[in-house]
Write a structure and sequence with these properties.
Elements lengths: L3 E9 L3 H17 L3 E6 L12 E7 L2 H9 L1 H10 L5 E8 L3
Antiparallel strand pairs: 1-3, 1-4, 2-3
């Protein structure tokens, strides 16, 4: 079974405090579903598309497990703290290659 990756790319952040509050809850929610942070931060190079301010890549054991995490009450609580904090963010889950 291939692994899955949750990818989040921030194009704009209007409230860093809300992003911090979100991250404080999202981290434990992610790890409770077996998620492993592979990359996160603002040191990135953008070659195509919109310039990104921040990006995060999280590995999960499967697509189902990544979706369970995203739909969990714990992650939804984290998202509620982010409301209005990320003006423009792309968030998706992609299945890894075998």
């Amino acid at each position: 079974m291939p692994k899955a990756y949750l990818v989040s790319a921030y194009n704009a952040i209007n409230d860093p405090d809300k992003l911090k509050a979100y991250a404080e809850l999202a981290g434990p929610a992610v790890t409770s579903f077996g998620g492993k942070f592979l990359a996160r931060g603002a040191n990135l190079a953008c070659y195509e598309g919109k310039e990104k301010l921040r990006a995060v890549v999280i590995e999960f054991e499967s697509m189902d497990r990544a979706k369970e995490c995203h739909e969990s009450d714990a992650y939804k609580e984290a998202l509620a703290n982010l409301e209005g904090g990320a003006v423009d963010r792309d968030l998706f889950i992609i299945e890894g290659a075998e």
